[in-house]
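Risk mitigation, structural track. In case the binding assays with S-adenosylmethionine fail to produce interpretable data, a predicted complex structure has been prepared as a fallback.
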Amino acid sequence: MVATQATDWERRYREGATGWERPGINPAFIAWRSDGTLTPCRILVPGCGRSVEPLLLAEAGFDVTVVDSAPSAIAAQQGRLSGLHVRAHVELGDLFAWEAPAPFDAVYDQTCLGALAPDLWPAYTGRLQRWLRPSGRLFAMFMQIGRETAGLPFHHCDLASMRTLFGDTAWQWPPSLPAQVPHPSGFTEQPVVLTRR
Ligand SMILES: C[S@@+](CC[C@H](N)C(=O)[O-])C[C@H]1O[C@@H](n2cnc3c(N)ncnc32)[C@H](O)[C@@H]1O
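Fallback model:
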């Protein structure tokens, strides 16, 4: 387990304790793709897990980089992406040590921020800022649990706290937020697209 993790993600993958995984495609991802908000570009998926969205991005012509510290997750992504003639980079690494070769146009954060211990959030948002080029966009899913609950592999991303964390000097928020999407855990996720200033 890497030092920046309170949860042993690899153990969870091996034991099948993966309650955060969606059986299908995230509805917010589908909406962003179909309304033209998310179009082919150089994109990073941090804490990709075994999610299917990186494959869909690669198949749609995005230049995709996925990073995760769990070997099982990276093996799953490698297995899906390596046989295809697509632009994809699959990297095993700790997000707090991994360096982007060049800034990205977009980051797709699906339950990665919320999976980190809240005391790491300021450092993580600093890294998101560094990974994105100016005017690059963060496509984020903020997990909405309603309260902080012990024992879950993710944390409540209170929206007022998110506005402070992703403050106005570094990030531009949209005038309004789209509807929340259901999560298989029974909670919801708040999709939001933030622009790095
Ligand atoms: C809640 S899961 C979400 C996975 C995936 N995005 C999805 O939607 O299924 C969080 C993921 O972040 C990864 N992760 C957590 N801390 C990490 C770190 N410090 N560096 C790299 N990956 C990390 C875990 O291994 C896990 O795959």
